[in-house]
Each structure stands twice: as structure tokens, then as C-alpha cells.
Amino acid sequence: MDKLNPVHSLLPPAGEGIYAGLIIKTTMTNQYVIDNLQAGNPASLGATFDGNGVNFAVFSAHAERVELCIFDAAGQKELARLPLPEFTNEIWHGYLPDAQPGLIYGYRMFGPNEPKRGHRFNPHKLLIDPYAKRLIGSFRWSPAQYGFDTGPRGEVLSFNKQDNARDTYKAVVSDNHFDWEDDKPPAIPLADSILYEVHVKGFTMRHTDVQKKLRGTYEGFASNAAIGHLQRLGITAVNLLPIHQSIPERHVIDKGLTNYWGYNSIAFFAPDKRFAIDDPVREFKTMVKHLHRAGIEVTLDVVYNHTAEGDHNGPTLSFRGLDNATYYHLRHGHPDYYENFTGTGNSVNLQHPRVLQMVMDSLRYWVLDMHVDGFRFDLATTLARGETGFDAQCNFFHCLQQDPVLSKVKLIAEPWDSGIGGYQVGRFPPGWSEWNDRFRDSARAFWVRETGYRGEIATRIAGSADLFGHHGRRPQASVNYITAHDGFTLHDLVSYNSKHNEINGEDNQDGTIDNKSWNCGVEGPTSLLAINTLRNKLKSSLLATLLISQGVPMLLAGDEMGRSQQGNNNAYNQDNDISWLQWQNADQSLMTFVSEMIALRRRYPQLRGTHWLNNSTAMTGVKEIVWLNRQGSEMTQAHWEEPDRHLLGILLNAKQTQEPTVLILMNAEAKDWAFPLPAGKWHMRLDTARYPETIVEALEHTLLLKAQSFVLLDKHTN
């Protein structure tokens, strides 16, 4: 028999590993006898407690036999291996009477081990149930995690018969009991939303007003101190970096680091144990309940595009061992290799109905059982890949559009991946919002005074109709941002010309080199007052630009307090002060500025319109938006085409007589300018060059617009 296809030789003799009549004790008061499993049913995937026992069901189209493995209460000793007795519609299933929540289990799969046909079954590997709601134990990288022993170039040498049960997570049978009290989703319209991208751990690890034992946890995030900060800013929704259970890559662990961000999921139903004190499910629900009570929505950054199993040389942890040929996109003609649209080694295959079902079931679980309010889909292009690339009419999109639960929550795409044709900004269907990197790049280019086209920043401020103005989509299809977890923080954007990622252990080769940043004359920290003053003006002006633009603004946690990563623009493996918010060093003035800017956004309906702004008098007799040149007159095509101009005025006329007209002036140039004001008496509401000074007297005729400054004024027509 081929040593790389040892299928039948791995099957134990009849009865071996099956302990009939064994008494299993899971709690002080509960014990039951394992005999042969009953048939159960295939309808409920995962481990489902019905009050009398537990039904187990797992999908595998190509397995030849499946064993349910039961462990002691500590998850250390494997007590029983029970073959699932039924196979219905490619679902293996069985029912264990008297079993209770708390039972610890995993699966072993028997079947062909033929990588050249796409099959990688190996019963020596204990596998995580894809539908596991909670995991127990810890994960340790060891040779036993791999299905094959490989050579120095990754070549397969032999089949790996080491058992990995000691070194991997086990699933726990859970019930859904939780006292939600009167919890209701805040249901905040996208037009009124302020998103805040934040890491659960990093948010509170250095917050001295959070109990020490709670810092870095779900419960710490739910503390009064943490929520109070969000409320003072005016945040309406937190977008949590991945909280699905993840596993750090081995090459990162070997460097003494970890995957802090968590973009390496292995269990799409289980909240990450990293952020829990005891029970991650209960503690996550508690966090959501407290945030909802404060009027703050919870959206999750979800990574359904790939898993922690990596490429063909990666470990066998769950999906690879359950049914490799189904769960992953395999390379045409070479199914022993994976399509790598994600840059992580593998890509999940949502073209298969069972894989699609798993993702849909996971999303519904997080909404219905965990009460989350929406999702941001990492590398979302991969989720819509078909035989010919990205497909805007794919089954995944259709399923979401018609789903009575998921069609009503916030759906946000990161509209690209690293495969061919991966950049798809603006091509997602109605009902979706998308990260708009064109907004990010144009705002950065404008304020750091790169040569550029003023029409680009104007289009982005107006909501990016060129990208999203189709199929009835509204400005809220654009999620605008200046910075995100991936890249420079706002402070570093105006403090560094180049990335400084040496601490990541990759010889500063990781992270983008296209940062559109400016150090204002000195690389990194400086005590020079003039440079620090300029940096503060630019930070305020960038934030103000974000918060007056049509669409949905997203802030990166810590930007409001001047957080720096010391020039690191790819701090994914920095679980330390580089990534954590430094509350003791927070820029209080900048935090106040952000809260005031958010309040101004709420004050003026023109800044959060639900329709595209009208720049013609044809329909209403008045232009809703007028673009002004440096002479205070309306921009012409010739003005738009002038090169290297970085001064722009925006007049937003009131739609209702009781509403004020708003005038926004943006001067990113290095010199002051006397700007002729439109007729009327204008009241200064914000000037980043003078902040926090407030000018109360009415202004007429001309305003001295300071260099690198953002100004907002208003006037009432009656």
C-alpha cells in the first residue's frame, strides 16, 4: 500500500477505541452511560442540546467514517471514540441520550488521503467542529498538528501518524441560556452612524479606570470607563477587530510574537478565548448587552475568506481534515495546492452550498444568539469568487439579500483581495456599504500637499457617486476613513515619511510603502514647537474632513487621542504598548475636538444626507452644494483643472428654512489666504488653526484662512 494513501491501514479493528458502557461524568450531579449512539438527525449541524441529550452532526461529502471523540472534564484525557452511526445527505450524525452542556468533544475523520485528488483525511488528527460555539484548552504548535512530514523545501516525505489531541482546542457542548433582559438593537441609521474600529484587548489594557483583572477582556470593554469614553466621543457603533477564535501563525510564534489582530480564524461560531476570563460566550453577550444599553451598536470584523490552516504545508486543524476538497478553492489541475486569493495560503470556497450554509449559519448565529448589529467582511472579494473571478451576482450575495435576518443588519465589505481582479470598490450589490480607500488616499494627498486633482477630493467629500451612485445605492454605501488598523495611525501619518517595522521581525519588508504620509520636517518625535503645531493642525483638519463628508465615517481607535505606533504600519504581531491605547498619554484637546466635530456633524443635516447632493438648480431652484475657488466664486471646469491647487470652499445650502447654510473652507497650502466670503453674516464654528479658540462675532466680506487649516462657518437665512 502506498505510504501516502494509508486509508484502510489506519482504520482500527472493530471495537477498538469504542468504549461501550463507559460512565462519563461531566459535572458533580450529572453522569450518563455511553453505549452506541442513536441515529439522531442531520438537520442541526454542530452539537445541539435538546434538554434530553445532544445531537451531533457534521458535514463531510468524502469521509468514509467519522468518530465522535469525548474527553474528560479537563479536556485532557480522551475517554471514548464513537462512530457516528448515520450518513444522510452528506451529513454524518448521531444522538447521545442524557448528554448535557459542558461535554467536551472533537472529531476524527477516516477517508482517502490523496492530496493529488484534493483529499487529506487523517484520523490521527483531532478536529474542531466547524459549528463549535465554545472551545476549551489551549493550542500548541507541534509536529503532531501536520498531516504530513515534509522536507526542507516543503516536499511530502511521509504520512504523519502523531496524535495532536493534546495540543489542540476541543469543542464544548453549549446551551444558549442567557438573560438578555430587555436588550434591543439600537438600530441606528447608517446616515447617523459614527463607526469606531477597535481591538477588544488593546482598548482597555492600559486603562487605569478599568479593574486590572478586566483589562483586555470583553468585560473590560463593557466597563463604565470604556463605554463612557465612546459616549463622550459620540460613537454609535464599535467595529471589533476579529473575535472569532483564531490561531497565530507558526512563523510568528517562532519569532516570539503573536497574531494580535486575529485575522487567522479557525472557528466561525466561537468567541476568542483570548478576551475572556472564564466563559467567552457569556462574557461576550454581557459586553453586547452593556453597549446596547448605552446606545452603541456592535459590528464584527469577520474573516470568512480563509482559515488558520494555511497552504498545502499547513496544519490539519478542522476544515482540511473534515473535507479539504469541499471547503477550499483548490488549484485547477493541481488540487494538492490551494488557490491563494487572500495572501494567507488558502481561500474558503463559498461556491459549495454546504460551505455557504456554514457561513450563513454563522452570521445568523451572531445576530440572533449573540445580538450583534452587523459585519465588516475582511477581503470580501474572495467570498464572491466564481470560476471567472469576482461575481456580483454570486449566491452569497443573493442569500444575504433575501435572508429575513441578515438583510436587515449592517453589511460592510473590504472590497478587495490579493488575487487577480481583486479590487472591486463600488461593485458590491445594493444593501452593502464598502470601505472607500479612494476617500482615504485623496484626503491624505490633499492635506500633505501632493500634486493632485481637486476634483478627486471633492468627489469623495460628496459621497463618491462615481463609485456608488448606481442601483439605487445611497451615499451611505461609502465607508470613509483616513486610517484603519492596517497602516499608519493618524499621528504617525503626519510624523513619518517611511515605515519603521523592524520590530516585526521581517527586516522592514512588511507593510505598504505607499503611505501618502508626511513627517512635517522631522522623522518621528520632536520637541520643536512649530512642527508639533503643524502636525496637530493636520490631524484636526484630516479628522474634520472625514466628519463633514457624505457617507459613513469610521475612526480608528486611538486616533482621537494621538496614539502612535512609532512608525510601524503593520503592527499585526505587536501585542504590547505599540498597539494598545495609551490612556495616560492621551491628547485631551484632540479628544475634545473629535467629540465637538461629531456634534457638528449631528447638528447639520447637510453633512449626513441620505440622497446624493444636487449641484443643479433644475429640481429645487437652489443648488444643495456649491464648490468655491480661492476667489470665493463658483468653480468652473478651468478651475478644477488647475494643477497643484489645495484650497477649496464648499457651500452647503439649507434644505429647510429653519436650517443654517454651512460653509466649509479647506486650505492645505503652506500660506495664508484672504478668502472672500459669500454674502451674509457668517458665524465661526470651527477653525483648526485657532482651536480651541472660538470666534463668536459675525464675520462678513473676508476671512483670513490660515495655512493648513479647516474652517466651518454657518449662517441663518432668516
Description:
This protein has 718 residues and is an alpha+beta fold. Among the domains are: 8-172, Immunoglobulin-like (Sandwich), CATH 2.60.40.10; 612-715, Golgi alpha-mannosidase II (Immunoglobulin-like, Sandwich). The chain is built from 16 helices and 35 strands. It has an eight-stranded parallel beta barrel. The protein has a six-stranded antiparallel β-sheet with strand order 28-29-30-35-32-33. β22 and β23 (389-390) form a beta hairpin. α10 crosses α11 and α14 packs parallel to α15. The radius of gyration is 28 Å and the shape is elongated.
* Percentage of residues in DSSP E strands: 15-25%
Mean pLDDT: 92
Strands of the widest sheet, in order across it, are 14-15-18-21-24-25-26-27
Task: Please state the overall shape, judged from the principal axes of the Cα atoms.
Answer: elongated
- Number of distinct beta strands: 35
CATH class of one domain: Mainly Beta
CATH architectural group of one domain = Sandwich
CATH superfamily of one domain: Immunoglobulins
| CATH-derived topology of one domain | Immunoglobulin-like
Distance between the termini: 91 Å
- Which structural class is indicated by helix and strand composition? alpha+beta
Helix content: 10-25%
By DSSP (H or I, 4+ residues per run), the number of helices equals: 16
Largest sheet: 8 strands, parallel, barrel
Radius of gyration: 28 Å
Which parts are unreliable, with pLDDT below 50 for 5 consecutive residues or more?
1-23, 25-33
Care to give the gist of this entry?
With 718 residues, this protein is α+β, with helices and mostly antiparallel strands. 20% of the residues lie in helices and 22% in strands.
